[in-house]
Amino acid sequence: MSKPLFMNRRFNADLKNLSISAEMVRQCRDILSIPSEIGQEIDLAVSESVSNAIRHSNSVGDASIALRLISDGQKLIIEVEDSGEGFEFELIGTPDLDVPHEGGYGLFLIKQVMDSVKYERRQDVNVLTMEKYLSAKEDD
């Protein structure tokens, strides 16, 4: 029962627009009949990544965020693009969970719930690509 899916949306870099990404994920979960636990992990990853993109985007002029959800029915690929300053993805470490502080947990949480997380800078655009298998992976 693998259903292909391609959703692509660009919206202004405004935290008010988190509802757009949430609605895209809701539709994706419905179309692909994603199990609840996996769907919650996808919700968290998309919410954190889009919120980070909005907060760190270049807010001068027409800053926008692009969100793509692509699936072959077995795996979901999520791409979040923004035009903010790039960052050293590999240097983002694990936050000290014993010392509570505001912020700095987004990428950590995303890496915890997704099967793969990659970042690249394409010309002047940041692209965060996340992958999630839509059913429990079998042990080899």
Please tell me about this protein's structure:
The protein has 3 helices and 5 strands. It has one domain: Histidine kinase-like ATPase, C-terminal domain (Heat Shock Protein 90, 2-Layer Sandwich), CATH 3.30.565. The chain has a 5-stranded antiparallel β-sheet with strand order 1-2-3-5-4, with helices on one face. It starts with a strand and ends in a 7-residue tail after the last strand. With 140 residues, it is an alpha+beta fold.
Give me a quick take on this structure.
With 140 residues, this protein is α+β, with helices and mostly antiparallel strands.
CATH superfamily: Histidine kinase-like ATPase, C-terminal domain
What kind of assembly state do the chains in view correspond to?
single chain
Mean pLDDT over the full residue set: 85
Domain unit count: 1
> Into which percentage range does the β-strand content fall?
25-35%
Question: Major beta sheet, specifics?
Answer: 5 strands, antiparallel
Radius of gyration: 15 Å
Terminal Cα span: 23 Å
Helix count, DSSP H or I runs of 4 or more residues: 3
Could you give the order of the helices and strands? EHHEEHEE
Taking pLDDT < 50 over at least 5 consecutive residues as the criterion, the unreliable ranges are none
Shape: globular
State the CATH architecture: 2-Layer Sandwich
